[in-house]
């Protein structure tokens, strides 16, 4: 979904995208983007300041690259730091080795430029230096976000199969949601309707979270931070949008109501305890876009049953909402595709995505 993230980043701030690669978007931007993107990007997890990106042959090269960085704009002398790492590919060293040599390089580089020995704190560091090793390339960055942005902090009810918020936001972008009447016929804890309401109302993420780690960086500028926050808060539009949540389980629907209340969008979402495979459940609903995350059938149904469920749901939705766009995510891809084929529904678009460790696909189609 890197292309979806890219378009969102470009929409929020004046970023100049340099490349879009697996799981990452590289861009240049002014310091104000560190604030505006952390405050409002719904489809990304973390924003890093990139300190180095180079090819390497050995662990010694990684040490040399890390040591050549000037950390004085990144770490104050009184800050603690930790090195985290992710490694992809076969190497004759481990991720622990990477953390050890980069940690040493940071301390030595800082000692030579500031004559201060930085302290390491692995559990609760002020500054998190992140090293991504991808085959023969090393990326070194500093985390400006802190905890991943997909944790929106409003969720009080955890549905057992909750959708990741960033994926829900991306699905709404794929469906070109712009405030039109929306239905999630299998809403669970209401992740999709809440994301929709937040995007329609232009609620920045910062309403619900605080404690970004950029605050510890020497280059943090509180005046620019405030200016960017105010700009976003001025755009908030608490109008009422038509967003409908349908759910067969009273327990999950109650959880959805609690989540919407905590997310401050209770008055723009309607909640219906109905079976969405039945035509009569949809009477008198005004719907222009459907975005949904059906059960995958991994736990509660078996795969044959889930195929039949998809067929009956799509049949009903097409009968009631013919011509309406539907965006859906499922890990039971062949069952969903077969159901569409049986009903003669053409898939306009599909893309692979990992969800909760499962390979899944997002589909877009017109009913
Ligand atoms: C994968 S979960 C949705 C999770 C949701 N996106 C979230 O983030 O919390 C699918 C939901 O569909 C509901 N469901 C299953 N069959 C249904 C039906 N016939 N009508 C309405 N809801 C149904 C289940 O109870 C479950 O909560």
What can be said about this structure in brief?
The protein has helices at 2-12, 31-40, 59-67, 95-114, 165-174, 191-201, 222-234, 250-262, 303-320, 333-343, and strands at residues 16-21, 24-28, 48-55, 80-88, 119-120, 127-134, 137-143, 182-184, 243-246, 269-272, 289-292, 325-330, 347-355, 358-366. It is of the alpha/beta class.
Count of distinct strands: 14
The 3D shape can be described as elongated
Strand/helix succession: HEEHEHEHEEEHEHHEHEEHEHEE
Main beta sheet: 7 strands, mixed
The number of distinct structural domains comes to 2
Quickly name the level 1 CATH class of the largest domain: Alpha Beta
Q: Tell me the helix content.
A: 25-40%
| Euclidean distance between termini CA atoms | 24 Å
Which architecture name of the largest domain does CATH use? Answer: 3-Layer(aba) Sandwich
Using the CA coordinates, give the radius of gyration.
Answer: 23 Å
- What CATH calls the topology of the largest domain is Rossmann fold
Supply the number of helical segments. Answer: 10
How much strand?
15-25%
| Small molecules bound | S-adenosylmethionine
Q: What is the topology, as strand order, of the major beta sheet?
A: 10-9-8-11-12-14-13
Structural class: alpha/beta
Going by CATH, the homologous superfamily of the largest domain would be Vaccinia Virus protein VP39
User: Which regions contain 5 or more consecutive residues with pLDDT less than 50?
Assistant: none
**What is the average per-residue confidence, as pLDDT, rounded to a whole number?**
95
Can you put this structure into words, describing what you see?
With 367 residues, this protein is α/β, with parallel strands linked by helices. It has 2 domains: 2-143, VC0802-like (2-Layer Sandwich); 165-202 and 237-366, Vaccinia Virus protein VP39 (Rossmann fold). The chain has helices spanning 2-12, 31-40, 59-67, 95-114, 165-174, 191-201, 222-234, 250-262, 303-320, 333-343; strands at 16-21, 24-28, 48-55, 80-88, 119-120, 127-134, 137-143, 182-184, 243-246, 269-272, 289-292, 325-330, 347-355, 358-366. The strands form 3 sheets. The protein has a 7-stranded mixed beta sheet, with helices on both faces. The protein has a 5-stranded mixed beta sheet with strand order 3-7-6-4-5. Helix 2 packs across helix 7 (222-234) and helix 3 (59-67) runs parallel beside helix 4. The site of S-adenosylmethionine (SAM) has 20 residues, from helix 6.
